[in-house]
Design goal:
Oligomer: single chain
CATH topology of the largest domain: Quinone Oxidoreductase, Chain A, domain 1
CATH class of the largest domain: Alpha Beta
Number of helices: 10
Shape: globular
């Protein structure tokens, strides 16, 4: 079928929105009509060339939509189902999946940046030439063919155009609180970085009953949104020492700190701002070549620094639960969507996100 998609070509940092061919879903795959796709920081990294992925490619891994067609051997999904597409599809069969850690799937995870779908094939093409996939999804398009494992069925009364970010930044931020750190009610939390992931950390911290929530960011506009959605204190490190201020506010350090930006300096500050016996969760991925430095004596105070992938989440369990909380008014996810752009204006949308405008920007086909 012919569809419109945003294609990123070799040596380009901007997209061509054009007509491409999308093959029908094969065994174990579904065709999804996309209602909306969030722009994730990982998309910025790929577009800028900071993260390599085979090109030409259609990006987008925070999509949501309606199942239009299913291939053979698809179970649990049918045409008409509403779905959120995950940015971390899992095979369900490897040693990590069967241990309840699908976020570490050893079969699908290595394929996310290889340009193919789950069976190492491609469904996108133009003029007979293949176009690569991103995160086995490629949802900056009108339709996407994805493996059934990448789709989570959700209730039909959910506003699909804005729920796609639950499939990556949403579940990552909230899961880091609920699953990774297991933040306790009445505790203190400090969040370094108030982008989409950090703001989802904030919403989850409010949800679990954290008593003190300190938001740290260089953007006053983002800090303002953080204050409106539950932060008890905000800190701009351009004007004050964030670690020192957090220690003053909490009497020695926060119970839980979250580094939601991919900066070695931010991670070091977050760890330093953690109280003895506390937990520092690293969510933002810093470059593999970066080195983290901290005082070894801190470990003798039983401070823990812990990495986090995909919020230590099980998408099929957690995404429907978060949507139920949103629909009941307990989780204001819609407050995080600060920009909507049509697919034809995707380059303007990326420019806005790269400039740090807003929290979550969504592309509407």
């Amino acid at each position: 079928m012919k569809i419109k998609a945003a294609v990123l070509y070799e040596n380009q940092t901007t997209f061509n929105v054009e007509e491409v061919d999308l093959a029908e879903p094969q065994a174990g795959e579904i065709l999804v009509k996309i209602a909306g796709t969030g722009i994730c920081h990982a998309d910025l990294d790929i577009a800028s060339g900071a993260v390599a992925i085979p090109r030409p490619v259609v990006l987008g891994h925070e999509g949501a939509g309606v199942v239009a067609e299913t291939g053979t051997e698809v179970t649990g999904l049918q045409a008409g189902d509403h779905v959120v597409l995950t940015g971390n599809a899992a095979c369900g069969k490897c040693q990590y999946c069967v241990r309840g850690m699908p976020y570490l799937c050893e079969i699908f995870r290595p394929l996310l940046h290889k340009g193919t779908v789950a069976n190492r094939q491609r469904r996108l093409s133009r003029n007979g030439e293949y176009i690569n996939h991103s995160f086995m999804q490629s949802s900056f398009a009108e339709y996407a063919v994805v493996p059934q494992e990448a789709a989570v069925k959700i209730r039909r009364d959910t506003p699909l155009d804005i729920m796609g970010f639950l499939g990556c930044s949403g579940i990552t931020g909230m899961g880091s609180v609920v699953n990774t750190a297991r933040v306790r009610a009445g505790s203190s939390v400090a969040i370094f970085g108030c982008g989409s992931v950090g703001m989802n950390v904030l919403l989850a911290s409010v949800l679990v009953g954290a008593a003190s929530i300190i938001a740290v960011d260089l953007s006053d506009s983002k800090l303002a949104i953080a204050g409106e959605t539950g932060a008890t204190h905000t800190v701009n490190p351009a004007r004050e020492n964030s670690t020192k201020h957090i220690k003053q506010l909490t009497g020695g350090g926060a119970d839980y700190t979250f580094a939601a930006v991919g900066s070695a300096d931010a991670i070091a500050q977050a760890f330093d701002a953690t109280r003895p016996g506390g937990i520092c969760v690293v969510i933002g991925g810093s470059p593999e070549t970066s080195q983290l430095t901290f005082n070894g004596g801190s470990l003798l105070q039983e401070r823990t620094i812990r990495g986090c992938r995909y919020g230590s989440s099980v998408a099929s369990r957690d995404i429907p639960a978060y949507i139920d909380l949103f629909m009941s008014g307990k989780l204001p996810l819609d407050r995080l969507v600060t920009g909507r752009f049509p697919l034809a204006e995707i380059n303007a949308a990326f420019s806005a996100v790269a400039a740090g405008e807003g929290i979550k920007t969504v592309i509407i086909p």
